[in-house]
Specification:
The protein is built from five helices and three strands. It has 132 residues and is α+β, with helices and mostly antiparallel strands.
């Protein structure tokens, strides 16, 4: 009875796998780029008067307004992923837009969608920032 039978294919497989087992594995990135720091934004959002996603009104009109604007933003494939992820917060018919986008054109485009949804430019608060 042979528990371990050494064959040419077993030796070849082991020889091919051995270098990968001996190479060092690095878990952390060696990228010298600094990590994003959201400390200032987080402090701003702790202000009781600041509109945040958890303060989105649950009435049907505000939910429908947010959904309408979100649908328009997501349908615009010319926008960046950042722009698609802008926070849209509706409170009593007023829409607040927050988050980074890649250009002033994206800000204008999202503002136009929100203005159309809200019905008036004075019902839209722009707190978006342009990040390259």
């Amino acid at each position: 009875m042979h528990l371990f039978h050494l064959t040419k294919s077993n030796v070849l497989t082991f020889a091919l796998l051995l270098p990968s087992l001996l190479l060092p594995v690095y878990a952390q990135s060696t990228d010298p780029k600094p990590q994003p720091d959201n400390t200032a934004v987080n402090k701003r959002d702790q202000n009781p008067g600041e509109a945040t996603a958890d303060k989105q009104k649950m009435n049907a009109a505000d939910r429908a307004l947010t959904a309408k604007i979100r649908k328009a933003v997501m349908a615009d494939k010319s926008l960046s992923t950042y722009a698609h992820n802008v926070k849209i917060i509706s409170q009593n018919g007023t829409v607040t837009l927050k988050g980074p986008v890649h250009s002033d054109d994206e800000v204008k485009s999202i503002m136009a969608m929100a203005t159309e949804g809200a019905g008036s430019p004075d019902k839209v608060v722009n707190k978006m920032s342009v990040k390259p």
